[in-house]
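Quick review question:
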């Protein structure tokens, strides 16, 4: 019997992290592969323990095992320890989905040092520290890293200067690692979500008017869901993507390519 594929998903207690776990679990069930999911949050929470129990009970055959891990990823030591704990549990590590992230909005002209540092530590440095600590294990499994960046990492996002800078750095970190580790058989990719409805953004979408205005900006006409991101991450993590490394995949319903739709007075305007 082959050993269970082991995937660490950081920020699994949140919206997109949960969507990633559900997509990975569904893929394992459909393909008949066993899976160990290390689901991470910054702290113990109802969301994290509910996820572990949902993933386990959805699996009739007992082929999916999930365990919660807690670590503040702005702490460098905690990033290193997390990798050690996951390998102690599972005996191997095949994939990291580096999804934990948070923004601290503020104009750069008066952003406090602490907000800048915390934003870069979580959204950029943590992925590098996790990747570095996991390198020997990922070399053994010829594994993957998939980081959740943002369309804010591809275009400047006024009012989110530290976040946008960190996500742009994250995209480059993935491209860089993809080149440095391709010879070891390790694939590294990023996904760049657009507007996704999750606990992070829920207050915005509770306002109907704002939701409708946002939807009207998206060529595909809707706000994204955590599963939209989860399904793409599950693909990039799987062997079906075995020839893909170093990409930054936009998952935004066409939003970031749609700028010219915003020009008033176009004769052929479709939206
Ligand atoms: N929602 C969007 O529209 C959108 C768009 C583009 C990109 N993204 C990116 O997608 C990722 C997930 O976002 P989301 O919308 O799902 O957010 P979310 O629901 O707020 O989840 C954020 C996750 O990050 C974890 N986290 C926060 N601070 C942490 C810390 N210091 N150390 C370790 N973990 C920490 C949280 O853990 P706890 O719950 O335990 O604190 C939670 O699991 C983020 O990287 C975000 O930047 C989101």
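Suggested answer, residue by residue:
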């Amino acid at each position: 019997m082959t050993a269970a594929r082991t995937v660490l998903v950081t920020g699994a207690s949140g919206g997109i992290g949960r969507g990633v776990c559900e997509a990975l679990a569904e893929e394992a069930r459909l393909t008949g592969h066993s899976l160990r999911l290390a689901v991470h949050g910054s702290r113990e929470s109802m969301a994290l323990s509910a996820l572990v129990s949902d993933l386990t009970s959805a699996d009739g055959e007992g082929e999916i095992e999930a365990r919660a891990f807690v670590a503040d990823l702005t702490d460098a030591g905690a990033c290193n320890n997390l990798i050690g704990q996951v390998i102690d549990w599972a005996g191997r590590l095949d994939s990291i989905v580096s999804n934990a992230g948070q923004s601290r909005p503020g104009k750069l002209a008066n952003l406090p040092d602490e907000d800048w540092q915390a934003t870069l530590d979580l959204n950029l440095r943590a992925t590098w520290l996790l990747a570095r600590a996991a390198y020997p294990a990922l070399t053994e499994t010829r594994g993957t890293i998939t980081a959740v960046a943002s369309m804010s990492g591809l275009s400047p996002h006024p009012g989110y200067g530290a976040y946008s800078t960190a996500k742009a750095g994250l995209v480059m970190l993935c491209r860089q690692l993809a080149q440095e580790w391709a010879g070891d058989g390790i694939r590294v990719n990023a996904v760049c979500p657009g507007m996704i409805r999750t606990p992070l953004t829920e207050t915005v979408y509770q306002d109907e008017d704002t939701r409708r205005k946002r939807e009207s900006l998206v060529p595909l006409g809707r706000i994204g869901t955590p599963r939209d991101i989860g399904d793409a991450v599950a693909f990039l993590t799987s062997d079906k993507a075995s020839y893909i490394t170093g990409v930054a995949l936009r998952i935004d319903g066409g939003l970031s390519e749609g700028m010219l739709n915003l020009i008033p007075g176009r004769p052929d305007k479709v939206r």
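Why it works: Strands lie at 5-9, 35-41, 64-70, 95-98, 144-148, 187-193, 248-251. Residues 11, 13-17, 41-43, 45, 72-74, 99-102, 122, 148, 150, 193, 195-196, 198-201 surround NAP (CB under 6 Å).
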